[in-house]
Amino acid sequence: MDLARIVADIGAEMAAAPDRGAVADYIPELGAVDPAHFGMAIVTADGAEVHTGDAATPFSIQSISKVFTLALALGRLGDQLWARVGREPSGLAFNSILQLESEHGIPRNPFINAGALVTTDAILAGHAPREALGEILRFIRAAAGDDDIHINPAVAQSEQDTGDRNLALAHFMRAHGNMKNPPALTCGTYFHQCAIEMTCLQLARAGRFLMGGTDTPTLVSPERVRRLNALMMTCGHYNGSGEFAFRVGLPGKSGVGGGILAIVPGCASIAVWSPGLDQNGNSQLGTLAVERLVHATGWSVFS
Amino acid sequence: MDLARIVADIGAEMAAAPDRGAVADYIPELGAVDPAHFGMAIVTADGAEVHTGDAATPFSIQSISKVFTLALALGRLGDQLWARVGREPSGLAFNSILQLESEHGIPRNPFINAGALVTTDAILAGHAPREALGEILRFIRAAAGDDDIHINPAVAQSEQDTGDRNLALAHFMRAHGNMKNPPALTCGTYFHQCAIEMTCLQLARAGRFLMGGTDTPTLVSPERVRRLNALMMTCGHYNGSGEFAFRVGLPGKSGVGGGILAIVPGCASIAVWSPGLDQNGNSQLGTLAVERLVHATGWSVFS
Amino acid sequence: MDLARIVADIGAEMAAAPDRGAVADYIPELGAVDPAHFGMAIVTADGAEVHTGDAATPFSIQSISKVFTLALALGRLGDQLWARVGREPSGLAFNSILQLESEHGIPRNPFINAGALVTTDAILAGHAPREALGEILRFIRAAAGDDDIHINPAVAQSEQDTGDRNLALAHFMRAHGNMKNPPALTCGTYFHQCAIEMTCLQLARAGRFLMGGTDTPTLVSPERVRRLNALMMTCGHYNGSGEFAFRVGLPGKSGVGGGILAIVPGCASIAVWSPGLDQNGNSQLGTLAVERLVHATGWSVFS
Amino acid sequence: MDLARIVADIGAEMAAAPDRGAVADYIPELGAVDPAHFGMAIVTADGAEVHTGDAATPFSIQSISKVFTLALALGRLGDQLWARVGREPSGLAFNSILQLESEHGIPRNPFINAGALVTTDAILAGHAPREALGEILRFIRAAAGDDDIHINPAVAQSEQDTGDRNLALAHFMRAHGNMKNPPALTCGTYFHQCAIEMTCLQLARAGRFLMGGTDTPTLVSPERVRRLNALMMTCGHYNGSGEFAFRVGLPGKSGVGGGILAIVPGCASIAVWSPGLDQNGNSQLGTLAVERLVHATGWSVFS
Prior knowledge:
The structure is a homotetramer.
Chain A: H1 3-16, E1 22-23, H2 28-31, E2 39-44, E3 49-53, E4 59-60, H3 65-77, H4 98-102, H5 113-124, H6 129-144, E5 150-151, H7 153-161, H8 164-175, H9 183-194, E6 196-198, H10 200-206, H11 222-235, H12 241-247, E7 252-254, E8 259-264, E9 268-273, E10 276-277, H13 284-297
Antiparallel strand pairs in A: 1-10, 2-3, 2-9, 4-6, 5-6, 7-8, 8-9
């Protein structure tokens, strides 16, 4: 299998694709990103790296950060985190408050916004947001083996300025006793974690711990890695999670900045970025690119 | 790996398990089944068969039939079936009518009842229920390589007698133009397909086509097999699908009769049966048994 | 107060009104009705009758029949009917199935479709639909003092042909034990009761028993009359009930045929008909006409 | 009619009633109120005042304040307020966030919490909360003809401390552009308005403007009075509004402090207080007392 050739072909196809989806525009920093961007990077279990396009251009990882904060929170709290957040697909939009009401403030899973706020709240745990953010950055930098990963302060500020829906979720969960820190602090931390910027290369490297192979850095136990991958498979693409599993067949997590992290257990960590989104808020060309890759490599976990 | 020993140990543990869940009691035929039953059978890609407990006792496959009817309907209609049923987890109970209302009569996926009714409606397609049921049975018998698979008429009659919720779903979809045959006919066919009885051994053999290996009978194309497995992973256990993926890490489909069919792509087809159900309507010991098996064999698709 | 003059002025205004709403078109018989129709009739407590426009043209009373069947069912069963149907506004569309699910098959009130089906089911009570319909017709004819009131069989047949949503509601309630007769029979009876045709004059006369004055025929006890009026006030116009109370300030019940029955307690019974509907399914000009009438007469119960 | 005797009899019955409901306990100040309290006061159109029990004991008016803020906001903004809040019963609990989601941040009516927050937000309109509260108090004092009406600061503080659900509603509406002031300010103002304390006598006097008779102080136009009464009838008792209309037949507004203000148009203003609540959050004995009063006086608007 000539992975370099496969990836180059995908890069060429995506560079020329006419229908690229719509860039998120709820904050000016995301709305201004050029939809022509496309980047992809793959790190395999044997340490090889293959990439194409804008793989070295930083982008806003947004909800992909939820994978790292979940791994971090589980490492600190262990399974008691699951008393505060579920493990089921939600069947609703990423920021829906509806299910929270009928389920008494326990979010469906850690990858919808409400669940990610619980995760961040568990990491915050009474400390200053600055400290929690330092810890999150240290985890990601260690995973990527790269200290040049930072928060974009303008993005964080814009998230804050338009963050009422997340503040509503946080206050709602606090009313149910499922938010331990003041909502403004937890949301502030969350807005900053979403504003972390990484390149495809950095993100693919940071995802190596989810491959679960023996030679990769073991930030997380093999059993927990399996479970993180299971959650990414069933819940990683909001209300398009079933579609991603159906088309791609890999655990993955998307962000509204147009990035996707996908894992081939025991085999590869894949990062892809294209800013245009589909109707479910997932990268349109990013999804297509991983689908092409899996088709060419046979990497689906279902075959 | 000594699979026979692993399976025997699991059989022994499950036979002695004190907490066995509650047997479904909405029809007398299911309510009368002894919760002490436990059976498991595994067919591997190389043709080996391992089993334990009541692996040769027939049980009501119930919703596991949805996997076979979906494969059959896709084989006949191809992807146009997806215009009538979605591919996303529902986040609600298996027989919920709520989402149907907000989504205009298009069920979330083919494994909730509404979606399975659409699938059966597509197979029925104006023919007599008897013919459609004959086709369904032929498909399952061919998959299992065993003609001794039958419908239990008493179960089918009881399903019919208590089938108002499914009739409500069918009429509701018909009101939205998504039920082509009279609801009584489609539901009648569906009640009979749910009343098919199989043993664990028959079911594990019937699941071979979902392994996707080259030596297994190819009832369905490799791409479709991947997609069926993806749907089983994200939607196969009703509102406990996330939990099954989290604990077990295999595509699977459960039935309210206490059976589970789980697939290890390229490697094995697993059938397990224990009549007691958990709060989501999935076999309690069946789930635990497959979890034990995956732990011992490393068969999770996520590692 | 010159009621004749007031009513004539309203008739003239409505005859010339350019925006008349949209005629219901889910069955051909309703869709073919000329939207130019407008009729109004008022019977006062002292027996005077005033009318204008097409007050002698029969129209399909549709959901207005629910008032009469409710009075009839309460007369037969008394308050035990309230164990099967609630008394609260629903906040949802007239044919919504959503609330039924979260409230275990007990409809919110007798004026949404599900609640009206329970009422009809209570009248049916094991008898043949023909007998139940005879009883309903006798009640209405007695209230109107007019035997020339009939069911339009073509309308009834069309209702039946498009009745899947009501059949879904009925099967759903039967699954919850709240439908005693076979859904096909209860729905069949209901479709026929909705197909009763009356003129504005007949309907205004039939509503006299809801005025509650001492000189009117006492089909129903004064306390029950108050309660029927309360239900008409809070629930009589589907999801536009609040709006009707706000604008008009009278208990009323609308039908998708464009009729409205409104009651001025102790004072008058009002029937109005104009086939064009607003977005909530209530007669657009009919509502406006009653609003004009109340403004001119000071008949609001809130002043 | 001997109103004094009727009221005295009701007072005696309520004082001895064994089943008094449960006092609200979400804040200590309400939880500590003695459920033995019962008070009732009536002011008639001719200026007579009749009262019984603890009619001179101040209690927390809570949601009854919503009637006064709505009158005040309508007086200032006129009908443009209705672009931000609806006029339909909600069919859901007073503090539900569910409907807000499907209806894009527009609350169903001004008497559920979300709608009352919009009303208060409209009064606040960029001013300091202290000024808005001054205006609200001035309105109520003018209506009551009594300057000895105050905010209980301990109650206001407790509301604030447990106000996360209201803050969630406010942030949610702000995310939809339907909250003009910072949620903390609007909610702070709202928590203080709910903490206003009045006696039954003061409240009955303050309700005179809703009687709509010509001799009463005209704070509000007759048409607006009719509309306020209509809203109180259809929406004034949360998810028990239909029940209050059914049993009592008067426009009314309840508060979680156990107070109810009910209006007999053209005839009387009624205030009742008993701290124990029914399952819908409305005063249990208060409702019963007004029901008794209406039965004895024939004051239902529906007769």
